[in-house]
Amino acid sequence: MGQPTKIATCCHCGTRALLRLDAGHHTLTCSACGAPLSKLKAMPVAAPSKPRAISHQPHVPKKQKPTKERPYRREKPKKKRKSLLWEFAEEAFDFIEDIFD
């Protein structure tokens, strides 16, 4: 396993730097402003994953909720167009009404 890796935070400017502690290189001053580094935090190491527990019960699929069916919507009946005879009768009635007015 390698050397520990830590995150160092500058006291003055708040810059964060990754600090690797090896035999030849130790930096305890900020590269941006030269202030001493503090607040060293160890990097989290990935924990080994645990195997899943074995279930000795048979697998039963979950029941799904019944879906609500929307009621059937009937289409509105189309409005019937006035026949040519009806329009002619209306025009005649209007004309007779105009004569009496």
From TrEMBL:
Region of interest (Disordered), ranges: 44-81
Superkingdom as given in the UniProt entry: Bacteria
Name of the protein this chain belongs to: Uncharacterized protein
Organism: Sulfitobacter donghicola DSW-25 = KCTC 12864 = JCM 14565
